[in-house]
Design brief:
The complex is a heterodimer of chains A (about 350) and B (about 350). Chain A contains 17 helices and 6 strands. Chain A has about 350 residues and is mainly α. In chain A, helix 5 packs across helix 12. In chain B, helix 6 runs parallel beside helix 8, helix 10 crosses helix 11 and helix 11 crosses helix 13. The chains are: A mainly alpha (about 350), B mainly alpha (about 350). Chains A and B meet through helix 7, helix 13, helix 15 and helix 16 of A and helix 8, helix 14 and helix 16 of B. Chain A: It comes from Microbacterium testaceum (Aureobacterium testaceum).
Chain lengths: ~350, ~350
């Protein structure tokens, strides 16, 4: 039981369950899922579908944060990616052609990958602080997106492209499959190989891990490339959802939501330790919170106060000092030191 | 070390004097670089745009960016300790619109203005407490402050509130002119903030502690400096500046608007970084941040002069930020080698 309570996913999952409980009590239909034309409908399905872009971005952000970095440019990369894809489709004579859409998607994700390479170069080679290195692209990226769309909001009409965000496969939204595949790919790469451990080593101490023979530069660079690429895919999902490339609005503030999701999932911003499962829980928590805020009839503009309160609670729960304060007040006899795994060896 | 190597250089005494000057004032070098770039930009614009009148343009840049200057002063304190404050834009919006609302309800200026500064200080204190006592990262703690302040701004009003109070409007409408230069009370407030902050950082014990904490927090603690109090104070100072900036912006635009200052925190950080303050803390000057704000303002003015599009404004700002950061990086790595 103690082991269960000290598992780091306990608090994030507890927060998510509490949110779902609040929703179910205030609106019993929250959990119900109906079938129409072989497609599933319901609040939970909406959450799965709408969380896909944030899931992709947060996944990349997890890797970057694990290397002790931060990527503020993801929103701008989403804008660029959407602009590239839609400009290509718009320019082609057959916007509905599957081949054209495929080319557009590949070009957009490729561009996003290059932007990730750029971020990684600034951070890992030039040694610029991640927050400023990515701030450069955050400021300039939307300008690039505006250049690509020539300052207009490009709109298109293309069924295959629309399918990306709005289509259904086997009853579930296609966007959800995209995000799940990304989670599985990243999860397998990071946890079934040594890559995850090396990433954490770099996050704990880049210099020490370099001396120990870890190619820290490549790992840090790779994290930014992954983050950029995933943001590119998220940009496609976003632009497919509204079928327009809006350089100013696409991915606005998603970097903050993504960082929050990662932190809510128990990953420390100090780097060196990350949890992909935690990020997934964090993303669902934020998406559920947003849907709750909408449902409770809170004017969308006031929702930041609720976000602030919710994040404050979770952050305090995760604060060791806040927890030890209550531990000390609750039971002063049980010293946390004796619960350390190496305590047995010593005694 | 200088005395040992001096004989070897021999005739090249002018370069060694130059090097000695640089090595003694290494932390000022980024500020000098910013000043140099500012001068080059001004000279270039004067040559290129025939109707670029220096006094008028520089005065209007100060006028248009007075709120940014006030924010940059507070941000400099936070960044000097190695922290960051993302809440400033939202706090500015919140205090601005609340001030407009209170004044509209008939609250006297003498009550409303200090109240806004106090509210800014309270939000700053909240962030400082989270950072200092609950080990929350400054990034996340100030993000909470940002969400809170932005939401509260919308709670006050969803639409802009016009200010009709004479006292506040006076801040903007009065112009003291001198030989083509002009300044408004908002500009004076901004410059006074810079002067006070520069004095505090340079000549007080608190100022030196700020640098010490940013240089190495552990050492500062071991030296017996009041680290906790200092780190709390810088967030309070940043909050006070944000509250003040809210009033300045409200006076400038003649109205409070809840969507004011979206993204201003990043403009502020960019200006501070352009001014030569290191994000790792421990090195930088308020004067540098002021230069940074001027550079930032001049970039925008030049771009609007040349009639370029919004897209190029953003790209240029990003590129210039990159330039400054790379130059800074080179300077830092050199100074690290020379030690």
């Amino acid at each position: 039981m103690k082991k269960f309570l000290t598992h780091r996913l306990v608090w994030p999952i507890a927060a998510l369950i509490a949110l779902i409980a609040v929703n179910t009590i205030s609106r019993p239909s929250f959990l119900s899922i109906t079938v129409q034309n072989g497609q599933l409908y319901g609040s939970l399905i909406d959450i799965l579908r709408n969380s896909a872009p944030l899931m992709l971005v947060a996944l990349g952000m997890t890797l970057v944060i694990a290397t002790r970095g931060i990527d503020l440019s993801v929103g701008a990369i989403m804008a660029v990616s959407g602009a590239v894809a839609l400009t290509i489709i718009e320019a082609s004579p057959e916007p509905g052609n599957l081949g054209v859409v495929m080319i557009a998607i590949v070009a957009a994700v490729g561009t996003a990958l290059l932007l990730g390479v750029w971020n990684g170069f600034l951070v890992s080679v030039l040694g610029i602080q991640p927050i400023i290195a990515t701030l450069v692209l955050m400021l300039a990226g939307r300008g690039v997106a505006l250049l690509i769309t020539k300052g207009f909001i490009t709109t298109i009409n293309s069924d295959p492209y629309q399918f990306m965000a709005q289509g259904y496969v086997l009853g579930l939204p296609f966007a959800f499959y995209v995000s799940i595949v990304a989670v599985i790919v990243v999860g397998v790469l990071e946890r079934r190989t040594a890559l995850g451990m090396l990433t954490e080593a770099v996050g704990i101490n880049p210099e020490a891990s370099r001396l120990a023979g870890v190619r820290s530069r490549g790992i840090i660079w790779g994290a930014y490339i992954a983050s950029g690429t995933l943001a590119g895919i998220a940009g496609i999902l976003y632009s497919s959802n509204i079928m327009a490339a809006d350089a100013n609005a696409a991915g606005l503030y998603i970097e903050l939501d993504a960082i929050l999701a990662v932190v809510l999932g128990g990953t420390s911003l100090a780097g060196g330790k990350f949890s992909i499962a935690g990020t997934v829980v964090g993303v669902f928590t934020i998406q559920t919170l947003k849907s709750t805020i909408t449902f409770l009839g809170v004017p969308p503009a006031v929702s930041p106060v609720f976000m602030a309160a919710a994040v404050l609670v979770v952050v305090l729960l995760q604060s060791p000092r806040f927890r030890s304060f209550f531990h000390a007040a609750g039971r002063s006899a049980a010293r946390p030191l004796t619960r350390r795994p190496d305590a047995k060896v010593l005694s | 070390m200088t005395t040992l190597t001096a004989p070897e250089r021999g005739a090249a005494s002018s370069t060694s004097a130059y090097r000695r000057f640089l090595s003694r004032h290494i932390s000022w070098v980024p500020v000098f670089a910013a000043v140099a770039i500012l001068i080059i930009m001004i000279a270039g614009s004067m040559a290129y745009f025939p109707n670029f009148q220096l006094p008028r343009i520089m005065s209007s840049i100060l006028l248009d960016n007075a709120y940014l200057l006030v924010l940059a002063v507070g941000m400099t304190f936070v960044i000097l300790t190695g922290g960051i404050d993302l809440s400033v834009g939202a706090v500015m919006a919140f205090t601005g619109i609340l001030c407009a609302k209170l004044l509209g309800d008939g609250v006297p200026v003498a009550v409303a203005v200090p109240a806004m500064v106090l509210i800014g200080a309270a939000i700053g204190l909240l962030i400082g407490v989270l950072v200092q006592f609950f080990d929350v990262q400054p990034f996340i703690a100030s993000l909470i402050g940002m969400f809170l302040a932005r939401g509260l701004a919308f709670v006050v009003s969803l639409e802009s509130i016009k200010v009709e109070n004479d006292g506040i409007l006076w801040l903007q409408s009065t112009r003291f002119s001198f030989a083509g230069w002009y300044i408004t009370p908002t500009g004076i407030i901004a410059l006074l903030t810079v002067a006070i902050a520069a004095f505090v950082l340079r000549y007080t014990r608190f100022g030196r502690t700020v640098y010490a904490v940013g240089g190495n927090e552990q050492s500062a603690r071991l030296m017996g400096l009041p680290v906790v109090r200092t780190k709390l104070s810088v967030y309070v100072i940043s909050g006070v500046c944000a509250g003040l900036a809210g009033i300045v912006l409200t006076a400038y635009s003649g109205a409070g608007y809840p969507l004011n200052g979206v993204g201003t925190e990043l403009d502020t950080i960019a200006a501070v970084v352009i001014g030569g303050t290191l994000l790792t803390g421990g090195s930088g000057f308020v004067i540098g941040s002021m230069i940074g704000v001027f550079v930032y303002g001049l970039i925008r003015t030049i771009i609007s002069f040349s009639g370029a599009e919004q897209s190029w404004t953003r790209i240029t700002v990003g590129a210039l930020l990159l330039l400054f950061v790379v130059v800074q990086r080179i300077i830092v790595s050199r100074s690290a080698l020379s030690r």
